[in-house]
């Protein structure tokens, strides 16, 4: 099976691109920040510098592990679903479920290893740049020498490898379960998880009021709360989407004609599948908006109080930006990958529409309207989650409820990125799909 | 672009489909496969024609070229007096949805739409008015009036194919093309489907062209056109199952004779 795994990677390197990219970026981040552990561990580093370095390494390193896990799991789930034909072929030729599991897990381990090895070079440079940044802002003494050592290497490779293997295991388990026809249980688990995320998120947001106003850590509860709320909304998104489309059926059909008509019916039936696309979209919008606005409020509050930023404040600021950056990149990869897969998976459906008399323009119109509905839903839910985190923090940190000094600029930029990623990916993929003549497109899966 | 009606035959003529010297080659110059080799065919309106031939004889290519799903390398295709010309896919789609209906072996119904929605989809796409009573009437015609709100995955293969036929007829096309419409059906469902196609010709004056490899299916047609190696290889009027099977079995030997006879 391992031989088969290697062969399938060599034959079709393209379909592992998204997994490789996730593993590579994850490994770069984990190694870059764990290099701060190596640097801090060297002899002659003062306490303040060491603390700055290890805090950064611990926080971002932890985030990184989680993100590698989610991103690889998302790309592999897509990958496994696209290969359902190949997998059922293997089953019919006599492969046991365990052998198929070993093949998929083996593939992802190999891809993760390649990603981690490729990441070493960029991580060495990235760590150097990060240390320079710390030294420039005064968070770390200028005398500290850069070290990229065993902690960075071992943690980078092991985290990437373990997260990938675990993600592959989950993805293939879900795929084989789906083949066996187990469905109901998942719905209940999903509802439980969704309510759990919403309750814990709301609780986390509420504890903001219990925090000391001057505590630098006051940003943590609302930020985590916003993420959890975003995840909860994402899990409920199929229900919300179905309801929303029921309301908007009239206007969408009136504005977009036959394309809009198809959009409404498609999306209502496929709402559950679309939550895979909505999840990264909501989390991205919620996270980016919440963190960036809270940081802006925090900076203004410090400025207003006439104090200069302490090393701790600066650490927090750097971390916030880094975390937002990482989440933005990973959510974008997940969004683009799942949207690409979901759209190219519909080659046959597009072919059927064309045979029924839809012009290429009408198909593109339908995909475009779908992208718009997705963007609006994702941005709306993400913004609600973000506001739920921003308001308590603003109330705590300033006298106002609404962060009035901050314009809508940040939010508009976040929305712009979300809309661009969604629309460009879905329309671009659909366009590629339409190049196949309709009759062939329909025959592919037949 | 689709040109303004360029009448190939006098107005009021009853020719539904005409192919003139249609040639189609696949592959590159070195290993080219000629799927259609100068095919001439003329089918009157209100006829039910079966196209038969062994695998690789070009019958599917013939259907796809005639239906505007594929473009011939040479030759002309005229549907209901109007020539199909090379243009953008959008132009070709508009040409098709006005004049041509399709029925496929794999039904090709959209899984997200109900039976009624699938049936009127071509009208919706063409921006035409959808009349609820008319939809009911059409679905009643294929025996599915009580299934209008079902989704295709709740229907049997035969029922799905009947929805596909209702969808093909809803635009009142000049020609309905059916590609192995009974290929995935059991004998009883196949008979229902064939009777429906036959009825659309006899009762409503539609024109149906059906590609099939099944002599039983072909026997429902008014005439059978045989195809071998991309060329026409004879025609059989008022076909019976046995006559069609007999003819098919000897198709290989008779190609040359028939060509000389100039079908």
TrEMBL record, chain A:
Q: Point out the coiled-coil segments of this chain.
A: none
Question: What does the UniProt keyword field contain?
Answer: Cell membrane, Membrane, Transmembrane, Transmembrane helix
What membrane topology does the UniProt entry give? Multi-pass membrane protein
The membrane spanning regions, by residue number, are: 16-36, 56-78, 109-131, 151-172, 192-211, 223-245, 277-296, 319-342, 363-390, 410-430
> Where is this protein found?
Cell membrane
Q: Where is the ABC3 transporter permease C-terminal domain?
A: 64-177, 322-436
User: Which species expresses this protein natively?
Assistant: Streptomyces gossypii
* Keyword Flavoprotein among record annotations: no
Broad class of where this protein is predominantly found = membrane
Superkingdom as given in the UniProt entry:
Bacteria
Q: What is this protein called?
A: FtsX-like permease family protein
Its family remark reads: Belongs to the ABC-4 integral membrane protein family.
Automatic annotation (TrEMBL), chain B:
Q: Which GO molecular function annotations are given, in alphabetical order?
A: ATP binding
| Transcription regulation keyword on record | no
Q: What InterPro entries does the record tag this protein with? A: AAA+_ATPase (IPR003593), ABC_transporter-like_ATP-bd (IPR003439), ABC_transporter-like_CS (IPR017871), ABC_transpr_LolD-like (IPR015854), MacB-like_ATP-bd (IPR017911), P-loop_NTPase (IPR027417)
| Segments traversing the membrane | none
This chain's protein is named ABC transporter ATP-binding protein
Q: Which PROSITE patterns match?
A: ABC_TRANSPORTER_1, ABC_TRANSPORTER_2
Question: What keywords sit in the KW lines?
Answer: ATP-binding, Nucleotide-binding, Transport
Please report the stretch or stretches of sequence annotated as the ABC transporter domain: 17-254
Q: Keyword ATP-binding on this protein? A: yes
